[in-house]
UniProtKB/TrEMBL annotation:
Source organism superkingdom: Bacteria
Gene Ontology MF terms in the entry: carboxylic ester hydrolase activity; serine-type peptidase activity
InterPro entries: AB_hydrolase_fold, FrsA_esterase, Peptidase_S9_cat
Organism field: Candidatus Roizmanbacteria bacterium CG22_combo_CG10-13_8_21_14_all_38_20
Keywords attached to this entry: Hydrolase, Membrane, Transmembrane, Transmembrane helix
Transmembrane segments: 5-25
Gene Ontology terms: biological process: proteolysis
Pfam families membership: Peptidase_S9
SUPFAM superfamilies: alpha/beta-Hydrolases
Domain Peptidase S9 prolyl oligopeptidase catalytic: 127-333
Protein name: Peptidase S9 prolyl oligopeptidase catalytic domain-containing protein
Keyword Transcription listed: no
Xref: Gene3D superfamilies: alpha/beta hydrolase
Length: 333
């Protein structure tokens, strides 16, 4: 009798343990049942749709890219405010369209973090975008939700972050709607956080978009966001609390681009630039990224600049942008 009781107890313990593990790692809304079948709780996991596994199956929406007001006219290109829809929300951005009949290759420009209170359309990309446009490329730099004339982002701090991937996926799907754009010749430029988004897009889409990364954030999520919290007014206390709540419901592994380098198309040409006195993205991050990409047998060239900072404002910007344009010319023209 004791043996049957022990076996029964162990079976019940294994059943409960298995259910808890299932709920921890199987990311979907799920009711928790007691051993006798009574529902005692329901865990909602709405952000499961942003795991990399699910984003691989994301049905990107192609909506009309509308050129709105003219922001600037130059001899070689015209700058416009543009809009499109992502998840039925308006996203604005800056488009540079070369003078001429086209069609022109397109570079999607992804910026790093800019405080909302100082943000204007084009900040973070405009200097490089103008040089690339002068070389005969259409450039499209989305503001992202919550910035410029875009709609509001999610109120959830992590969904606001994950939405950036779908914002770019929808923009890429919408390029064929833009007059003068050659949708078969598309490249990506990403700086800082925008570099991390660019890497994520390469993983999700598995398409060989020629890609240039300037000082990309490449540490694993969520360390990649915790690293910068010393700049917050509260030292990151609120974000750490929200992260704890996030990790109670989700496995962060499934949201970390550093776990999916193997998904990048082996034919993707990549150029990586890094300042050695970068105060925001340590050079060790890009050194490791370069090695990781080499380990994945990716086609990557790596340039470092001994006295250059995060924004390439210490004298090496002309060399960096020249190498960038030469790279795109070689791959897209």
């Amino acid at each position: 009798m004791k043996r049957h009781i022990i076996i029964g107890g162990l079976s019940l313990l294994l059943l409960i343990t298995g259910m808890l593990l299932y709920l921890q790692f199987f990311d979907q809304d799920e009711a928790l049942l007691s051993p006798i079948g009574k529902e005692v709780a329901k865990v909602s996991r709405p952000l499961v749709k942003y795991t990399f596994e699910n984003l691989k199956n994301y049905n990107a929406a192609s909506t009309l890219i509308r050129l709105k007001e003219v922001l600037k006219e130059e001899d070689d290109y015209t700058s416009y405010l543009f809009t499109y829809l992502s998840d039925n929300k308006q996203v604005s951005g800056l488009a540079n369209i070369p003078v001429g009949s086209g069609p022109f290759p397109v570079i999607v420009m992804l910026r790093g973090f800019v405080p909302l209170e100082i943000y204007e359309t084009g900040i973070g990309t405009n200097h490089s975008a103008e040089a690339i446009a002068e070389a005969g490329y259409i450039t499209l730099a989305p503001d992202f939700l919550g910035y410029g004339q875009s709609a509001s982002p999610s109120a959830d701090v992590f969904e606001e972050r994950f939405e950036k991937n779908t914002t770019v996926l929808d923009l890429l799907a919408s390029i064929p709607t833009l007059e003068k754009a050659d949708a078969n010749r598309v490249g990506i430029w990403g700086h800082s956080n925008g570099g991390q988004i660019a890497i994520s897009i390469l993983e999700i889409m598995n398409k060989p978009y020629p890609t240039v990364l300037w000082a990309p954030v490449s540490k694993p999520f969520p360390y990649s966001i915790l690293y910068f919290t010393d700049e917050y007014d509260d030292g990151g206390k609120a974000l750490r609390k929200m992260l704890t709540q996030f990790e109670e419901k989700y496995n962060v592994f499934y949201y970390d681009p550093a776990n999916y380098y193997r998904w990048i198309n082996k034919e993707t040409p990549i150029q990586l630039h890094q300042g050695r006195v970068d105060e925001e993205v340590p050079v060790a991050w890009s050194d490791k990224l370069y090695k990781d990409f080499q380990d994945e047998e990716l086609d990557i060239a790596y340039f470092t600049y001994s006295q250059e900072n995060h924004n390439f404002t210490q004298g090496q910007w002309p060399t960096t942008i020249a190498r960038t344009i030469e790279f795109f010319d070689e791959k897209l023209k």
